[in-house]
Each structure stands twice: as structure tokens, then as C-alpha cells.
Amino acid sequence: MKLIAESGSTRTEWVLVEDNNLIQRAFTEGLNPFFQTRREISRSVRLGLPELFFKKKLEQVYFYGAGCSSHEKKNILGASLVAQFKTPIQVESDLLAAARGLFKCEAGIACILGTGSNSCFYDGKIIAKNVKAGGYILGDEGSGAVMGKHFLSDVLKGLAPKDITNDFYDKFRINANEVMESVYNRPFPNRFLATVSYFLADYLNEDYVYNLITSNLRSFFTRNVCQYDYQNYPVRFVGSLAHYYAELLRETAKEFGIDLKTIEETSINGLIEYHAMNREEV
């Protein structure tokens, strides 16, 4: 039996798999070694997962996560999981999860739009090229966090429409000072910012909101996708925001001559298929 996990900054999806069959699925909070210590990760896993996940005899745990791009961060995550499951652990990035989940063993351009954003050219085995994501301060174009950041900046500066601003303050039960507190002094500001981005979906008929979202998506294509050979390889997307704004994402892709056929909410089903093929090389 295998345990496969895919984690963004907001949520982690865990699946127990035996002979390509899904046995049980569970969700916990997002795990990210950039924002959490080894002890905090261990505690989150132990308290968040059902006891069944610790009682099953596992041959391997495959964990794919945001923030797991360097050996140092992989080791933090791996040590936390070994302590909980007492079994071999393979920790890889959420970007490799996207590539394997979207393309299995085929070549293509894999893109993530969720709380954060990322992209790569995957040659069917490895990530052959990656335009660095930059995080929600220096990059993450098109992500929920960056959309939320741009909207809140407009709200604080009085540039967002007043009715949308008032609705935001009312629905979130928050004021300008608390916005600043949530972004600068509370844990996981990227999660807060991403939550704000989904609020905008109720106002897509407003030119301000439509333009804010599409300009962010356009920025993702311009600054990321266009740096790959996107005219000769398929482009596919995964992530909560990509799924949520799929129609606008497809419209924006067409501006770049891209026929976007595949948009998945998560990579987990593709990862189950990938690991059933016994292709475990990195």
C-alpha cells in the first residue's frame, strides 16, 4: 500500500492507494517548510489525519509539496513524515506533482495556479526548465495570493469600486487596520490573500474585477508560459484558482494562441495513475 500526498500552501490531500485503487482520502491544512518548522509539520500531520493512515503498513510515502524545491526544505518535510509513518519517504515539489499528474510520461508545459503559481517544461521524466516562481511578493503572477494582494491594495488606496469595497469589509467582517494586521503580522498571509481572491468571483460582471483577474492571468502567461516553447508543446493547468476561474483562464490563453484543453483542480488522480506505472525516478 502506498500513501500519496499533494500539498499546496492552503490544503494537503492524502490518499491511501493499493494496486491503483483508492482506499481512503483525507485532507489536512497545507504543509510548507518555508513557513513551518519540523515540529509544526509533525503536529499538523499527526492531529490532522485519521488514525487509519498510521495503522496501515505502507511500502512507500510520496509527498509532493509547495516549498519543497531545495534539499534543505525536502529534508525538513521528510524528517517530519518519517517520524510519523516509520517508512521510506520520497519528498518532491508540487511542481513535479503537477507535471506528473498532468502529463504522466509525456512532454508538456505544466502550470499551477492556486494560492501561489508556478510553471515548468516537463520532458516526460524530469523538469527540464523552470521559470522561477518568485513567491507572492516577487512573483506568483496569476495566483490567488497576488490577485488578493492587488485587490486589497486598491481597497486601501480607495481605487476599488466603493460598493465592492463595502461588500468586502462586510462579508469578511474586517476593517482596513485588520487587513494590514492579517497581511503583515499574522501567520500565512498568502492564505489570507488567496481567500480574498475568491471573493471576486461574485463580481465578474464588473469591469474592474474582470480586468483585475484577466490582467493577472495575462501576466502569468507573459512572464512564465511565453518563456517556454509553448507553440510546440501542450499547456495544461492545475490548481484551485485555475479550476475556479477556468473560463477566464481559457479566454486569456486564446489571446496567446493556446487552446487550453486540460484544467484540473488537483494533481492527485494523475499521480495515482503515474505511480501505478511504477515510474519512480525523479
Q: What features would you describe in this structure?
A:
This is N-acetylglucosamine kinase. It is a single chain. By secondary structure, this protein is an alpha/beta fold. It has a domain at 2-97 and 268-276: Nucleotidyltransferase, domain 5 (2-Layer Sandwich). Helix content is 46%, strand content 20%. It is built from 13 helices and 10 strands. A 5-stranded mixed sheet has the order 3-2-1-4-5, sandwiched between helices. Strands 8-7-6-9-10 form a 5-stranded mixed sheet. The radius of gyration is 19 Å and the shape is globular.
Short summary:
This protein has helices at residues 38-48, 52-55, 71-85, 94-103, 135-138, 144-156, 162-172, 176-184, 189-199, 207-223, 240-244, 246-255, 268-276, and strands spanning 2-7, 11-18, 21-29, 60-65, 89-93, 108-113, 117-122, 127-129, 235-238, 263-264. With 282 residues, it is an alpha/beta fold.
